[in-house]
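Troubleshooting log. The previous run stalled partway through. Resubmitting the same two chains, unchanged.
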Amino acid sequence: AQKVTQAQTEISVVEKEDVTLDCVYETRDTTYYLFWYKQPPSGELVFLIRRNSFDEQNEISGRYSWNFQKSTSSFNFTITASQVVDSAVYFCALSEAGRDDKIIFGKGTRLHILP
Amino acid sequence: DVKVTQSSRYLVKRTGEKVFLECVQDMDHENMFWYRQDPGLGLRLIYFSYDVKMKEKGDIPEGYSVSREKKERFSLILESASTNQTSMYLCASSPTGTSGTGFYFGPGTRLLVL
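Second attempt completed without errors. Output:
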């Protein structure tokens, strides 16, 4: 069965610190997709990144970076030089290829960036 | 930009009332979804739809029904609201045949049932 685990329920860091959000997934599929979403206090989930299972290259987008390691079934998200605006709940998610209905979300990590 | 809108951001209803939550997307997506989000439980799928007049149960369909009469609109219905349906409700849409594109979410409706 598919499963996404975000072991960190809540994290607090001081502004400008780096912070890594962990995501571990389980799946028997060889083709799958991994996602990160951000949910700010306004409530709307914002799509951040998608990764397919054949692409293990790390990705960097500004202060955000993602580390995908199939060997450990992990897809971790790092925010460098955090800012107060990064405060949000972050969700990691997994879907099988060809299954639009089966996107499995982790329970989220609430990130507090303290000024 | 994909736009998914939900009819209300906040809603207060009484136990036993019939409640309609509306969701509209403007990108001609085939798939639409309703989730509820509760602290400590994450997002749970209530119902989804692959096409007009088509619906499938998700993980927690009890106490809910849905309607999809037009491609762009997907309604969630609480036939007789109960206090345990107090939650944040999120609508999402996605295109078919491009799995992995990602879901696009609406802003959510916070429902309080008294």
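Takeaways: DSSP finds no helices and eleven strands in chain B. Residues 20 and 77 of chain B are 5 Å apart (CA to CA).
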